[in-house]
Amino acid sequence: MATRSRAYEEIKAYLSATCSGNGRHLRAETASGRDAAAVDKLVLSLVDGQKVSDQLFPGATVWWHAHADEPPSADTWHQQEKRLQLTIRYHERYHEFVKDNYLPRIRREGRELIVKGRQRKIFTNICSVYTGSTWSHALFEHSKTFATLAMDPARKKEIMDDLDKFKNGKDYYARVGKAWKRGYLLYGPPRTGKSSMIAAMANHLDYDIYDIELTSVHSNAELRKLLIETTPKSIILIEDIDCSLDLTGARKNQKPAAEDTGNRLTLSGLLNVIDGLWSCWGEERIFVFTTNHVKKLDPALIRPGRMDKHIEMGYCCIEGFKSLAKMYLDVDAHRLFDAVGELLREVEMTIANVAEHLTPKSSEDNPDSCLETLLNALDEAAAKKKANGGNEHDVQGDEQ
Ligand SMILES: Nc1ncnc2c1ncn2[C@@H]1O[C@H](COP(=O)(O)OP(=O)(O)OP(=O)(O)O)[C@@H](O)[C@H]1O
Known about the structure:
Residues 180-317 form the AAA+ ATPase domain. This is AAA+ ATPase domain-containing protein. Belongs to the AAA ATPase family. BCS1 subfamily. By secondary structure, the protein is α/β, with parallel strands linked by helices. 42% of the residues lie in helices and 20% in strands. It has helices at residues 6-19, 76-80, 95-117, 153-167, 170-176, 194-205, 220-228, 241-244, 250-253, 256-259, 267-281, 299-302, 318-329, 337-346, 351-358, 367-387; strands at 2-3, 27-30, 40-43, 51-57, 60-68, 84-89, 121-128, 132-139, 180-187, 208-211, 234-238, 283-291, 309-312. Strand 7 and strand 8 (132-139) form a beta hairpin. The longest helix is centred in the first third of the chain and has 23 residues, at 95-117. The radius of gyration is 27 Å and the shape is globular. The N and C termini lie far apart (64 Å). Residues 149-151, 190-196, 292, 313, 351-352, 355 line the site of adenosine-5'-triphosphate (ATP).
């Protein structure tokens, strides 16, 4: 029997996970019979069996025992999902102490362990022959944070404040009787940093990401199932909403009653899920839609209440350029800044392209040479634009 082992740490983590309500089930039962008041049974899902003892305090021991539960059915599929039960035993004279001191401490320590060791995940939907649409996950390790996101500091602060207000808004949402959720629409041309912004949001909030590939979802019912399986503290992301489905103009020509049969995914299905299901089950979830073509979207999709905050991801502005110069070249001011700023007002260049020009390519490159490279590229773009009769387009030829 292990004492104060890794297993014990794991049990604490499981208890904590249970108490945070992420889908695991915790039940404290009083056993019947002679030891009725003395034995609490904590029943929850574990992935592995454990046998450990622990000290309540010097001279008083508590025993933890994990044992296999009966599988719900004999088929192999369920056997794999066999559950384990966890029982805690101690002398009845310690019951109050266990209940009021020991278990709360274990849960608190467990929560701290989880927060310390927690690695965020990114989920994507896959179609399995056994379970239909389901989530598959990988560790989320995107390095982009608000600190490394070049943009106008005032806009950055506004977005960060908005996210903080949401994250700390549990009481507010309860008070006004609204589901604790918020919708963000990120729109702008390709390569203007939409994915980077989402990564920064997830890192800032410490949320998981559920990246829904709508083209792999075949019906409204499947979408509903997927959304129900998402956990709180998550960003539910639908990228390129205008490309995923015919969610743009089609709705105007279709009869909602005929569409929303549950047999295929439709715009009204999506809206129903957001409005109906979402409002009663959504807790601490953020919905993010992205698009390169905001004007094409059906207004019903992006109205406030569904998409509460619209964030335009535009071409590089002077403030964005200044933060890139600081990040890439470690310069706060330079004689070429004004000329660059002037040209950025005139031509459209993505942050991605500005960053590329500011990246030193050899050991001989320095802030002067990188800024000159950028200035030349901007000059060239301005000349092209002039030759083009003033047509707006990304000077580096990004796809629109
Ligand atoms: N604000 C920014 N600060 C720093 N780097 C950025 C910023 N925006 C974009 N980048 C860089 O530019 C590249 C493209 O950005 P990203 O993939 O986030 O754009 P996107 O709008 O999601 O593109 P697409 O529409 O093609 O998916 C990335 O390498 C990213 O690191």
